[in-house]
Amino acid sequence: MQQSECGIFPLDDALEMILIFDQFGIISYANREAEKNLEYDGGLCGRNIAEIFPGSFKVQGGILKTDYPFGRDLQKLVAYRRNFTCFPVEARILSADVEEKTYICMANITLEKDHLSREISEVREQARQALKVKSEFVANVTHELRTPVNGVLGHVRELSGQEEDERKLRTLKVIERCCDDMNKIINNILDFSKLEAGKFTLETRRFHMRDMLDYVKANHMNKITEKGLEFFMTVSPQVPEYIIGDELRIQQILNNLLSNALKFTSVGKITLEVLKTAQVKDRVELFFIVIDSGIGIDEGEMGKLFQSFSQVDASISRKYGGTGLGLNICKQLAELMGGRIGVESRKGRGSAFSFSIWAGVDSQENETVSRADTVTADFFANRQNQQDSARVYGSSENKEALNRTLSKLILCVEMENWEKAEMFMETLRQLTEGAPREVSRVVLRLKMAVQKENYDKVTAGFEELKAFLQA
After folding, report:
1. What is the CATH number of the domain that holds 177?
2. Which of 165, 344, 415, 437 lies most in the core, judged by the most C-beta atoms within 10 Å?
């Protein structure tokens, strides 16, 4: 390489602007890129760095002054050309020689980058506005649809009370059911629009948990029994009587999951279970499980379940109906309430949908929950031959009872006696009341596997729980 006239080996092949200057700001070297972009045509050497970056450097009493933070971090500066026009750059200035107080500036022009950034911001804002317009349009249309649908529904119900002809009554019932289905679709679209636009808010209040669950059960009991199915609901004694949360949205998730269970189940039963899985001060985690013996889902298709406007396959929509919005809305509602939603299923063996939420309890309810825990423990102690120590998780008596129950459970599973296995599973759940959360989770997964008659998951849960007991 040849030396430059300033006596410094040049870095003319560099794609960024490079300037070397001393403690007084005098430039001793500038590469071709710097000369070209600053339009000095070889006249940069001998000039002051303050002429290039007047907003960042200045000379006072012959000494270079600056607040610029020297180092490897990129800084945004404004560089000035010879004709006093300017352009933005990203630069870093490092000490090249500490003893001689020499510095090297490396800078890249960011005009194109800034322009692209502005374009991206504009596109993002346009997309946001388009989403807002779309959401408002969908909300307005669905509101307008609701009026004529409710009008038809009202007249149909009025005619149904007056009509005596059986054939006409059946027709009116079909119209009424269609109007109800249409209202459900409208409500789903409205909720989805609000969630998508970020305008959805929860309305929390104190309500009676078991009354709400009984109301949900009553709404679905007739339809389920009419189809020849059995319906069971169990609520853990540890679930608080009163909680503070959005009652309507919890109902909405349960109604959706139970409706889906009914839709996809022809023979067997549907079960709803409610458990308390954790408590932190005045907040409790509640876990809901809806289990059916319906058509089930292939493992590879489960990822589609909670996507908007998505069905497992097209034949599902044709045969059973639906928009594919319900489960996506349930997922977002559960997440808004601090929880999550999931599913376990096997093709032809049914499904188990579960979701969790976090809700508040007041101080009075905390005392009630504590009393309920005590009652549950006492009940368990009586069932375990009145051995008081057996109800204390981790005691030798408790471990012995757990091992006995586990052995009976796995024996029933090996013999494919699933009904009896469920009985031992309930005993197992009671034996682990008060256990650490990781143990409770294993027990919960094992319970779901037994109810779904999933041999592989039962044996895996059995081994996992066995490992906890041997620790």
Report:
1. 1.10.287
2. 344
Average pLDDT over residues 389-401: 75
At 11, give phi and psi (nearest 5°): -120, 50
Cβ partners under 8 Å of residue 240, min gap 6 = 209, 276, 284, 361, 365, 368, 369, 372
Separation CA 178–CA 182 (nearest Å)? 6
Length of the chain: 471
Rounded to the nearest 5°, which phi and psi values hold at 129? -65, -40
Q: What is the CA radius of gyration of the chain?
A: 35
Alpha-carbon gap, residue 381 to 431, rounded angstroms: 9
Question: Which of the four pLDDT bands, split at 50, 70 and 90, describes residue 7?
Answer: very low
Tell me, yes or no, whether 288 and 356 share the same domain. yes
Q: Is the pTM of this model over 0.70?
A: no
Written as one string, the DSSP assignment of 1-48 is: -PPPTTSS---TT-SSEEEEEETT-BEEEE-HHHHHHHT-TT--TTSB
The residue among 352, 329, 359, 204 whose CA lies nearest residue 256 is 329
Based on the fold, state whether residues 147 and 215 are members of the same structural domain. no
How distant, in Å, are the alpha carbons of 63, 430, 459 from that of 467?
Answer: 74, 19, 12
Q: What is the pLDDT of residues 331-373, one digit of tens each?
A: 888 998 999 998 888 887 888 999 999 999 976 655 555 555 5
Q: What distance in Å separates the CA atoms of residue 364 and residue 385, rounded to the nearest whole number?
A: 33
CA distance 398 to 430: 11
Q: What is the CATH number of the domain that holds 347?
A: 3.30.565.10
Do 97 and 46 belong together in one domain?
yes
Give 31-57 pLDDT, tens digit per residue. Answer: 988 988 898 877 888 899 999 998 888
Is the pLDDT confidence value at 412 over 60? yes
